[in-house]
What we know:
Layout: H1 2-28, H2 30-48, H3 59-81, H4 89-115, H5 123-144, H6 157-180, H7 184-200, H8 213-246
Helix pairs in contact: 1-4, 1-8, 2-8, 4-8, 5-6, 5-8, 6-7
Amino acid sequence: MHLFRNIVFTAAIVGLLAGLAMTAIQHFGTQPLIVKAEVVEQANAAKAAEPHDHATAGAHDHAAVTATEEAAASGHEHGADEWEPADGIERFSWTLVANIVSGIGFALLLVAASELRGGLTSWREGLLWGLAGFAVFTLAPSIGLPPEAPGVEGAPLMDRQIWWVATAIATAVGLALIAFSRSPIAAIAAVALIAAPHVVGAPKPPAPPAIPHDLEHGFVVAVIVTGFLFWAILGALAGVLRPRFAGS
């Protein structure tokens, strides 16, 4: 019970601090790119919904245009019913809450997993565990499924979730074999596990991105860099705090 309490308490503090740091990084890193992508996405949607010249269109074209306009209006009404946070303090607040919750969840995984190896003893050791978390949950899945900015249509959600989970598990097991086993066979198995999801291939999106390539590329890089900083901070903090609470 004492160990469980220490794990939860450490994870709560580490997740809170890492979530705060991630929110600050996102505010200056990914958030401006999201706003730009949303502007482009809205402009593309408005352009697609523009009515055609009914006077010069034939009967068939007129019917097609009418159907398109009705579908666009229906989609707009449906979108209006869906709640989303308003720009400004409301969006920032919900982002902060989501980051803190995610930070606590990932911190629980990291601290609990490290306890199986005797627990973290320093910020350097925590940093190594954090970098492993970055490889498992951010880097490896991003190779096949890059982060999606607004205006980027992804593959079916279930297909993406299955591939993402399989990639994270395979990468985690592979890294564990490399780190904690000295057997050549285990090393070969580890490489095979890490490579397997990428050999199979991630599900492909049905359409190319509707935003400029430079904007999409910048967003992907920003998200990966943010993930790296998040996991580095989370791991280092866990390495600093865990020994203090373990001795209490």
